[in-house]
Amino acid sequence: WISDNIEGTNFDARSLNLAYCALDGPSLCKMSQNDMIGVFGPQLGPHLHQSLLKHKAKHGKSVALDFISHIYVFFLLGCLFSGLRTPESTSGESDPEFFSPFRRPTDLVIADILAPRGTHLWEFIRDILIYPEKNHGLLKWEDRREGVFKFLKSEAVAQMWGQKKKNSSMTYEKLSRAMRYYYKRDILERVDGRRLVYKFGKNASGWKLNELPSVM
DNA sequence: ATGCACTTTCCTGTTT
DNA sequence: TAAACAGGAAAGTGCA
């Protein structure tokens, strides 16, 4: 439900207050507009409130039960964000097992909710790297602190990029040309002699451990 | 309606 | 030899 509501707005889901992720359906239904604003902020709060009112009008008393079927989204967001801040920040190496109990059924849900706001290639790459749920072994950090990363499935990443841009003929060949243009703009730094390896430059933001999307 | 940023496409040549 | 890397050139796209 939240995913649907965020779609079509420019709201950045990364700024959600995830402390409230444990809300259940009935609690959510009891929230006033002010409650919503308190939890979701002045932008998304009223939007969700309106949507909830519509939903209530449509479905009457069954709404609370209805919500229970959607509310797992909150729970899983909580899992995701608590995970982001634990294993990787200390070891520098993400632990795929850490997420395993939650990953399988939720890949699509979380990927949708966390759909990147930016539409640029480097942001797309960055978001695959920082959200394990999106990764599927496509890319990996080579040096997390330095922002060095490597394409593990270059053609698959290109396909996904193409999918996002509604261009089924995207290839790594073409994607990499766009990557090379980033060198001039200091969004990427050259890493030479290492195939499929790139490094974020000083004009790339949002990838460092200390600037990961955080819980407010 | 036009300019601009950001690719996308294609290409020729080089390197690994 | 295949796959990547290098960039020039030009076309395409979405947005302000």
Automatic annotation (TrEMBL):
GO terms for cellular component: nucleus. Gene3D superfamilies: Transcription Factor, Ets-1, Winged helix-like DNA-binding domain superfamily/Winged helix DNA-binding domain. Keywords: DNA-binding, Nucleus. PROSITE patterns: ETS_DOMAIN_3. Residues 119-201 form the ETS domain. SMART domains: ETS. GO terms for molecular function: DNA-binding transcription factor activity, RNA polymerase II-specific; sequence-specific DNA binding. Pfam families: Ets. Its main location: nucleus. It is found in: Nucleus. GO terms for biological process: cell differentiation. InterPro entries: Ets_dom, ETS_fam, SAM/pointed_sf, WH-like_DNA-bd_sf, WH_DNA-bd_sf. PANTHER family: ETS, ETS-RELATED TRANSCRIPTION FACTOR ELF-3. Belongs to the ETS family. This is ETS domain-containing protein.
